[in-house]
Design goal:
six-stranded parallel β-sheet, carbohydrate binding, 10 helices, 306 residues, elongated, binds beta-D-fucofuranose, six-stranded mixed β-sheet, 12 strands, Peripla_BP_I, Putative sugar ABC transporter sugar-binding protein, signal
């Protein structure tokens, strides 16, 4: 249709809102649940969704965003695979008067006018919660606690922030030491590979801190293959609380999970409608999350929605 003064740039036919969504990939259980949430909510909200999967590559996301600009969608939403390098393409969207919403992950642009709002978790807080649990758990022991860290995708907001939050929390106890830290790219196979190398190079590992459930699940395979018992010989802390992670937690193979909610779809559609209508929205919308012990996981496992 013809966009009158003050209305959003592209209304590609009818009253239906068109959203271009540039997803990170399909790297984890979290991501699969997040994609489903966005697709289900779009349908429910009557939003025409154009969806692309960047296979964890920034260049693919940039291409997808450029094609959404060309198609004159009403709004662009995306989950930036890494934090840096977005200013150019975001300026292109701004020049085309297409509003952008960040979901799940942040960008490090200093120009806050390049996007309308950022919906997602507080990753520093998640890392802190993981570290706080370990501080409590290790209170009674006097020995050094050797921790290996399996980081998420290098340069991504959740990897940067979870690392920071965890390091901050374990400062409370000098006997907690990170002896190795490497990226497993948020995948199960990545977690397994990194853990295999850690086990080879470190004789005495007490704890794994994995930045997501999938990496933790991969680490479990490596630990078992090395003849050790995950959850006992080596304790495991992860983030996400997806079905497979929660199952491993209830089975005693993981010791603690910090929840990170992938169910962002409804809030995203809501924000998109407001932004397109020209309403002001908060510049930051933080997801509410909890934590789970093994006992708590047993109680909620059956009722988890993802
Ligand atoms: O924790 C991980 C996924 O960005 C919060 O990405 C998300 C993270 C999530 O691959 O499983």
């Amino acid at each position: 249709g013809t966009a009158g003064a003050g209305s959003a740039a592209g209304t590609s036919g009818g009253d239906k809102i068109t959203m271009g969504f540039a997803q990170v990939g399909a790297e984890s259980g979290w991501r699969t649940a997040n994609t489903k949430s966005v697709q289900d909510s779009a349908k429910k909200a009557g939003v025409d969704l154009k969806f692309s999967d960047a296979q964890q590559k920034q260049e693919n996301q940039i291409k997808a965003i450029r094609s959404y600009i060309q198609q004159k969608v009403d709004v662009i939403a995306f989950s930036p695979v890494v934090e840096s390098g977005w200013d150019t393409v975001l300026k292109e969207a701004k020049n085309a008067k297409i509003p952008v919403i960040l979901t799940d992950r942040a960008v490090d642009s200093s120009d806050k006018t390049l996007y309308k709002t950022f919906l997602g978790s507080d990753f520093v807080e998640e890392g802190k919660k993981a570290g706080d649990w370990l501080v409590k758990e290790s209170k009674s022991s006097t020995d050094t606690v050797n921790i290996v860290e399996i980081q998420g995708t290098t340069g991504s907001a959740p990897a940067n922030d979870r690392k920071e939050g965890f390091a901050e929390a374990i400062k409370a106890d000098p006997k907690l030491k990170i002896v190795a830290s490497q990226s497993g790219d948020f995948t199960r196979s990545g977690g397994k590979q990194v853990m295999e190398a850690f086990l080879k190079n470190n004789a005495d590992i007490d704890v794994v801190f994995a930045h997501n459930d999938d990496e933790g699940l991969g680490a479990i395979e490596a630990i078992e293959a090395a003849g050790k018992v995950p959850g006992k010989d080596i304790k495991i802390i992860t983030i996400d609380a997806v079905k497979d992670g929660m199952t491993a937690l209830s089975n005693g193979k993981i010791n603690y999970i910090v929840e990170c909610s992938p169910m962002l779809g409804d809030q995203l559609m809501d924000l998109a409608k407001k932004v397109i209508a020209g309403e002001t929205v908060p510049e930051r919308v933080v997801t509410e999350e909890t934590t789970f012990t093994q006992e708590q996981a047993k109680q909620v496992l059956a009722s988890r929605p993802y």
